Write a sequence for this structure.
């Protein structure tokens, strides 16, 4: 039912289903919607709790630029992304 409603108003299904949403700008920045907390943070690793899974960004010169409500922005040189359950 919620998925049909999301499609009807052209919302991304992941927003309605409570899933994490990642919006990349190349490998230099990512906005994560659905963040519930930061588990690990240094210049090479940013690990985020999203409830159902953890998302780990690996790279160099990583920094958290914004963390407002359940949205977080990570910038730097992102080399890889891991999804951990």
């Amino acid at each position: 039912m919620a998925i049909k409603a999301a499609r009807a108003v052209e919302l991304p299904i992941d927003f309605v289903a409570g899933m994490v949403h990642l919006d990349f700008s190349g490998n230099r920045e990512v906005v994560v919607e659905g963040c519930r907390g930061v588990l690990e943070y240094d210049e090479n690793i940013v690990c985020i709790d999203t409830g159902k899974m953890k998302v780990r960004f690996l790279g160099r010169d990583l920094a958290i630029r914004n963390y407002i409500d359940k949205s977080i922005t990570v910038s730097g040189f992102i080399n890889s992304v891991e999804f951990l359950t």
